[in-house]
Amino acid sequence: MGKFHENTGVWNMRRIKGVNAPATGNLPVLKPFDAHRHSPDGYIFVRWLAALPWWTPFALLLIMIAWPRFAYAQDGYDLGDAFDALWRWMPFLVKSGFLFNVLISVLAMAIGTVAGAALGLGQISPSRMVRGASWFATQLFRNSPWLVLLFIVLLALPFEIEIFGKIIRIPDWMKGVFGLSLPVMANISEVVRGAVQSVPTAQWEAAESLAFTRRQILWQIILPQCFKRMIPPWMNWYAILTMATPLCSLLGIEELITLSRQAMESEDNHPELLMPFFGFALILFFAYCYPIARWTISLERKYAVKL
After folding, report:
1. Are 77 and 271 in contact (CB under 8 A)?
2. Which letter, b or e, does each residue of 154-168 get, where b requires 16 or more Cβ atoms within 10 Å of its Cβ?
3. pLDDT in tens, 148-206
4. Distance between CA 233 and CA 303 in Å, rounded?
5. Which residues of 89-107 are buried (b: 16+ CB within 10 A; e: fewer)?
């Protein structure tokens, strides 16, 4: 490395060619190292950014906005053509698409209501085993993602079953109906349980003092009072279910969103088609669900418990 001189008090460093001494030969291995030239600068990006003119971000934003317009204009297809295509496909989308969404929601709500009512009554059953099983099923399907349940049902259920030697096919849309009915069942179960428990306990005690059985108390005294209280939340869940039916498009079920995508593909997938077709789907769902929501609010006010 070097030698220390006691007289001068300095190190006599060994001279290394190419490092601290001139290189010899035609092919030097190392070049002289300049510490000042190679010192790291941690502000390179900041200096470069500060050197840009103040109008740079506005110019970039303008390019980002203008570029799609120039790109779309090259094919000669505009929004007017897109709305003309929507007008041609509109009857098909309404009859074969949206009405099918309504059918799926009605069937899923019917199955979920019947099963949810039974599950809700099971949560208030005198039997501890029935209460536990009903509570577990309610919490399981109530706190599970709807899309995950749809995929599980689609993959778990067979596409055909044989009954008494006759083969019955199960279409994908029926699987979608069953998959959507599971979370609805769990939420209707909570609606039924909450409505029954909202009835004052004095009515239970009075009915028991008159020698009514538990079945008579439920069907003749308690449930008739709960019916009006359950209508508003039931309608609310139906509106939520209807708005969730487009999830079936991810399973390949031919409903409004699936048919809208197929229609856009038949029109060569122009980007201008996205807003008219999906906007039309949004308007259909809003026009169907908004009156239900307003009606739900009015019924909730009408049947509210007056204290």
Report:
1. no
2. beeeeeeeeeeeeee
3. 999 898 888 877 777 777 887 888 888 889 999 999 999 999 999 988 888 888 888 88
4. 11
5. bbeebeeebbebbeebbeb
Pairing, β 160-163 against β 10-13:
unpaired
Is the CB of residue 116 less than 8 Å from the CB of residue 187? yes
Residue 161 is classified by DSSP as E
3-state secondary structure string, 182-230? HHHHHHHHHHHHHHHHHCCHHHHHHHHHCCCCHHHHHHHHHHHHHHHHH
Tokens of 124: 């208030």
Angle between helices 128-142 and 99-122 (to 10 degrees): 150
**Residue 300: exposure state from Cβ atoms within 10 A (0-12, 13-18, ≥19):** middle
Helix 172-198 with 128-142: angle, nearest 10 deg: 120
